[in-house]
Amino acid sequence: MKSKFGAAETTIINQDEFYKTEEVVEKIYHPAAVTLTEQEYYWSFDEKEAINIDQFKERILQESKVFKNVIIDGNMITEMDEIVELCDQIVVLTLDFVSF
Question: By the 8 A CB rule, do 70 and 56 touch?
Fold first, then answer.
């Protein structure tokens, strides 16, 4: 039986490649941020709005024309309807430090 996920037929796209720049991402002002960033704010990179979804979607569409299997990696994928619509399957893995 031939494998469904041959290395030559598979590519991986990581959500982290599509973060917007600090100039565009929302700044959150909070007194506790000073201890973390030496500034009065931190960037809101933990929100889907910090991802350039259009570029992410375009890359998925391009890669799916070349590869049989496109694996999309990222912790916010299920929050982006435009990305979920492109998926045939969604597998969620949670690893703790002991397993890793």
Answer: no
The pTM (predicted TM-score) of the whole model is 0.75
Whether the CA torsion 82, 87, 92, 93 is positive or negative: it is negative
Specify if 50 maps to a domain: yes
Both tokens of 6, joined, read: 């041959």
Range of the domain at 68: 7-84
Cβ count near 92 (within 10 Å):
7
Q: Are 18 and 52 in contact (CB under 8 A)?
A: yes
User: Could you report the per-residue pLDDT of 22-65, keeping only the tens digit for each?
Assistant: 788 877 777 676 666 667 776 677 788 889 999 999 999 999 99
